[in-house]
Amino acid sequence: MTTPQPPVPVFRPGLFDGQLALVTGGGTGIGFGVAQLLAELGATVVLASRNQAHLDPAVEQLRSVGRKAASLVLDVRDADGVKAAVRSVADTHGRIDVLVNNAAGNFYVPSESMSANAWRSVLEIDLSGTFFCSQAVMPVMRDRGGGRIVNISMTLHYRGWPLMAHATAAKAGIDALTRTLALEWARHGIRVNAVAPGPIPTEGVKKAFAALPGQPHDVFSAERAMDDYARRAIPLARMGSPRDIANMVAFLASPAGDWITGAIMVVDGGEWLQKSPN
After folding, report:
1. C-alpha closest to that of 45 among 66, 64, 65, 71
2. pLDDT tens per residue across span 99-143
């Protein structure tokens, strides 16, 4: 598969020194990529996930290279649990400067056979979880004079995407929520933005793609199929990487983004602008 070149440092060292970043879904995929970059730039990162097994190796990997990292078992669907967890993080560290709402629960399923539980599950994790976490950190950020919230959206709802009705509905809601909270909380110095990734072939995405009817049934064949898709459908002719998304999150969370709020930043190699290939 065509992959990006190794990351080149584009931010000054120590950019987030002394700051605390809470990253939901931070143990794997895009979330871990974001946490990794923020930690490289000096932040203490708290990685949150429902699954401790995802968190332990991620935190160990960061600590092994001298980064400041901690884990937090959290179900973002539980509003009261989120509030308690945020209070605990704020009490322990004295601050929460950056929240990255990355937790998601997406999978392919035909709309006509989607169960009510499947619909609710994705809406609750993606959309309700983003709201609950944002609502919980708001008073912490407000009392410290401001903060930055970055939501992870997607581009699929811009034109519709078969077998993803639940995810596209949830992510469209996240875009709307981003703009609404940006307006409500600007007076408190809280900037709320979103990043809309294009195709990022994490291990979970490869496995889901390989499981689709009519698609290759192993990860390596799925990689070749996605590489072919990138050449045909993405103007920049490659799939994205977690670092591509992390760079935009870091930009929005940095002083360079001080006059940006309510924005949905598309990072997709131009994919959504191009007509879908046959």
Report:
1. 71
2. 999 999 988 999 999 999 999 999 999 999 999 999 999 999 999
Task: Give the closest residue to 193 by CA, choosing from 205, 185, 203.
Answer: 185
Q: What is the DSSP letter of 164?
A: -
Residues 184, 176: contact at Cβ < 8 Å? no
Q: How far apart are CA 163 and CA 198, in angstroms?
A: 17
Q: Which residue has the tokens 């997709």?
A: 268
> Which CATH code is given to the segment(s) 20-200+243-264?
3.40.50.720
Q: Is 121 helix (H, G, I), strand (E, B) or coil?
A: helix
Task: Name the residue among 128, 129, 139, 97 with its Cα closest to residue 25.
Answer: 129
The contacts of residue 33 (CB under 8 Å, 6+ apart) are 241, 242, 243, 245, 246
What are 72's strand-pairing partners?
48
- The pTM of the full predicted model, rounded to 2 decimals, is 0.91
AA letter at 167? A
Report how far residue 227's alpha carbon sits from residue 21's, in angstroms, rounded to the nearest whole number. 33
What is the domain partition of the chain in residue ranges?
20-200+243-264, 204-239
